[in-house]
């Protein structure tokens, strides 16, 4: 934890957010996170919106092979995660989406 950190100490991710809003205001709005734990990081997260994640990944120039995939909640939630750099900030890009239920064999269409 960064005891005594002032708001000015979060200037890097806040500046990046301002520039992202100006440069990519047409993209889907993410949930935004800034924390004193990682004062140079800006987190953009998407819940149930993998297309929004992909649009931002592309806009930030993060290579598709830099995205990691995992699951949580007993395999019921898909998680995509990638990191990039923008305006001096580390951008953590994350998406959460339900894993589709498997189709039942022989079920009527």
TrEMBL record:
Organism: Streptomyces misionensis
Top-level division of the source organism's lineage: Bacteria
Record protein name field: Uncharacterized protein
């Amino acid at each position: 934890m960064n005891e005594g950190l002032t708001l000015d100490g979060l200037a890097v991710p806040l500046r990046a957010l301002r520039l992202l809003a100006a440069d990519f205001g047409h993209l889907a709005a993410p949930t935004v996170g800034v924390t004193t734990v990682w004062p140079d990081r800006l987190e953009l997260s998407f819940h149930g919106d993998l297309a929004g994640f992909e649009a931002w990944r592309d806009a930030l120039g993060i290579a598709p092979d830099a995205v990691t995939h995992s699951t949580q909640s007993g395999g019921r939630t898909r998680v995509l995660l990638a990191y990039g750099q923008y305006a001096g900030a580390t951008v953590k890009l994350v998406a959460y989406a339900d894993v589709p239920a498997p189709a039942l064999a022989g079920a009527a269409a």
